[in-house]
Design brief:
It is a single chain. It contains 17 helices and 22 strands. With 493 residues, it is an alpha/beta fold. It has a domain of 241 residues: 2-Layer Sandwich (Nucleotidyltransferase, domain 5). The chain has a seven-stranded mixed β-sheet with strand order 16-17-15-14-20-21-22. A five-stranded mixed β-sheet has the order 3-2-1-5-13. The protein has a two-stranded antiparallel sheet with strand order 4-7. Helix 4 packs across helix 5, helix 10 packs across helix 15 and helix 13 crosses helix 14. The chain is globular and about 65 Å long. The model has no long low-confidence stretch (mean pLDDT 92).
Length: 493
């Protein structure tokens, strides 16, 4: 009998369930999009019920496929968009408000007050995070302050908080399990990554009661079983990991110094630092990479806000092409970038700049500049931003030797080669592209003994294509000098 692991991948725009065999090969996938809500400028929300319904639909699809294949489902792993915040009624399971998404900026005033009160250093030292609306802590506070139902349920001790993983676990187990994992907890800005506990001082600062918070477990752990009314048969849930950490696990970045970069809507670089926390002096984040058997492995993280979103902008707003894959032909048609640079600060700049006031800058335009040059400048900018993150890591004493990549953008061979040239390290693209979902499947399998160890998991990783730096040092320096000038224009505020 064939044996399978299901991975639920709850993303920012859609939910997917993927059926993996024990070698980490995707067998079947079901995907459903859900609506994005923008009630005010800077606000981004999801409907938790839509998230739940689309999850259940995709989950049932893959269960049905497993039956048709006469296979046995051993367990379920969950990976999810991090930081997104839901509060719900403990008795009814009904959310008290929409899910406030990681992209949401409504709590900037809270964050400003925290900074003015000189909480930056203590929060960074405890959580590894900068004070920013990005993280869950101030989102929880906003709901507690602004939603009457939340206040009422809190007084009754009938209110629960969770990131998307916690909410799904609660629903899948019919309210029997209220839990999260260490990676998701580490992105809330209220979790102490040294003690591996919710931080009492930060909770008092934000006026958050501890009894609303989930139990924090290892990534490979017992998260209960699905209720038969949902999945037909009860299936154990034994793996939970935040999406970027899950991609790192899916890429088998288990050794200190190993590095992955995911190029989706944004781009996220994670570098494994082993059991040692390294606090960046260059505005990178320190986070939990994974926790297994109560042992914590840490990571350094840099985030780029605009990667694939830049390609979407070129397609949907500028109308330069109809399909994203067309960009590769456009890029190959130009001998060079003609000194045209785009700084895609459409929503401000992420690491290492963290400048929310900056906006996009297109520079070096001449009468000859056309759509092709702008396309190239947009895609080149993702490689330049990655270079900035790598430089920040180098300045923190970490030297990336190679990088494993995943996400939609890296299927473009021109971009993958240019990335290798600009960051001046080897770039490895794996055969299995669904690395985020795969990481959760690996953790779920590890808990039940389908894999004996991380070393055993690593045997399932295989290379599709390797890109080696070919660019002359002088050419690289010239390009990066041009980028540096463009960045200065964008950061003028």
């Amino acid at each position: 009998m064939k044996k399978f692991i299901i991975s639920i991948d709850s993303g920012t725009t859609s939910n997917r369930s993927i059926l993996f065999d024990l070698k980490g090969k995707p067998v079947f996938s079901s995907q459903k999009e859900f609506k994005q809500y923008f009630p005010k400028s800077g606000w981004v929300e999801h409907d938790p019920e839509e998230i739940w319904k689309t999850t259940v639909k995709t989950l049932k699809d893959v269960i049905a496929k497993a039956k048709r294949l006469r296979g046995k489902i051993l367990t379920i792993g969950i990976t999810n968009q991090r930081e997104t915040t839901i509060l719900w009624d403990k008795k009814s399971g009904e959310p008290v408000y929409k899910a406030i998404v990681w992209q949401d900026r409504r709590t900037e005033e809270y964050c400003k007050r925290l900074r003015k009160q000189n909480n930056d250093t203590s929060i960074f030292n405890k959580t590894g995070l900068l004070i920013d609306p990005y993280f869950s802590g101030t989102k929880i506070k906003w709901i507690l302050d602004n939603v009457p139902k939340a206040k009422k349920l809190l007084k009754k001790k009938q209110l629960l908080f969770g990131t998307i993983d916690s909410f799904l676990i609660w629903r899948l187990t019919k309210g029997k399990v209220h839990a999260t994992d260490a990676t998701n907890a580490s992105r809330t800005m209220i979790y102490n990554i040294t003690s591996n506990k919710w931080d009492d001082n930060i909770l008092r600062l934000l006026k958050i009661k501890k009894h609303i918070l989930p139990v924090v477990k290892d990534c490979a752990d017992d998260f209960g079983k699905t209720h038969p009314s949902i999945t037909g048969k009860s299936i154990p849930i034994t793996g939970v990991v935040g999406d970027q950490q899950s991609a790192s696990i899916g890429q088998c970045c288990f050794e200190p110094g190993s590095l992955k970069s995911t190029y989706g809507t944004g781009a996220f670089v994670l570098l494994n630092t082993g059991y040692k926390k390294i606090y960046s002096k260059n505005r990178l984040l320190t986070t939990i990479g994974y926790r297994i058997n109560d042992k914590t492995t840490y990571a350094m993280e840099g985030s780029i806000f605009i990667a694939g979103a830049g390609v979407q902008w070129l397609r949907d707003r500028m109308k330069f092409f109809k399909k994203a894959f067309e960009t590769e032909k456009i890029l190959k048609s130009l001998k060079d970038n003609r000194d045209v640079y785009l700084v895609p600060a459409f929503t401000g700049m992420g690491a290492p700049y963290w400048n929310q006031q900056s906006r996009g800058v297109l520079s070096g335009l001449t009468r000859d500049t056309g759509p092709k040059e702008i396309v190239r400048a947009t895609i080149e900018s993702v490689a330049y931003q990655t270079h900035d993150l790598f430089e920040a890591m180098k300045n923190d004493g970490l030297r990336p030797r190679m990088v494993k990549v995943d996400g939609g953008m890296v299927m473009n061979n021109w971009f993958s080669q240019f990335l290798s040239d600009v960051v001046n390290v080897k770039v490895y693209r794996p055969k299995v592209h669904e690395t985020t979902a795969l990481g959760a499947a690996f953790m779920a399998g590890l808990k039940i003994g389908a894999y004996k160890s991380l070393k055993d998991i690593s045997k399932n990783w295989s290379l599709e294509k390797k890109f080696i730096p070919k660019m002359k040092n002088s050419d690289r320096k010239t390009l990066l000098l041009g980028w540096s000038k463009a960045i200065k224009r964008a950061l003028i505020n």
